[in-house]
Amino acid sequence: MNATIGLDTNILARYFVVPGDDPAERQQFAQAQSLIDSGQPLMVCKTVLLELEWVLRGFYRYSRADIGRALSWLSEQAHIELEDRSAVEHALANYTAGFDFADALHHASYAGCNRVASFDDRGFVRRSERLKLQPPVRLPGTRRSR
Predict the structure, then answer these.
(1) Class of residue 91 by CB neighbours under 10 A (exposed 0-12, middle 13-18, buried 19+)
(2) Residue 67 pLDDT
(3) CA 93 to chain centre
(4) How many other CB atoms are found less than 10 A from the CB of residue 110?
């Protein structure tokens, strides 16, 4: 039987967010630190990373740089297995270059495709063009993005 522990978003959020005065938050923070810093085999799936970015950005108002550091730190931990690590690392690179994390993760997950179709012309399509990403992101029904 595999002894790896899968981590939910709330464990990671509690690890990265310094607690306030609430004793329950402080206890969860200590428990999350103990688990993550234990060195035992852990796993984080891509959907948890996607949700973590959203929680840190949307709820806790973390900056892009702070979120990037947190996600990069996770990817550097030898005892933490990331689902589809190569796609996550590719997404982190594009996130650092200005992509929305969700779009970056979607794009990295479609690496084996000929192209990606999106109606998000102002965001996903234009940013992918600027970075000359492969596969290209295109508006449906067009050879060119615009």
Answers:
(1) buried
(2) 97
(3) 11
(4) 15
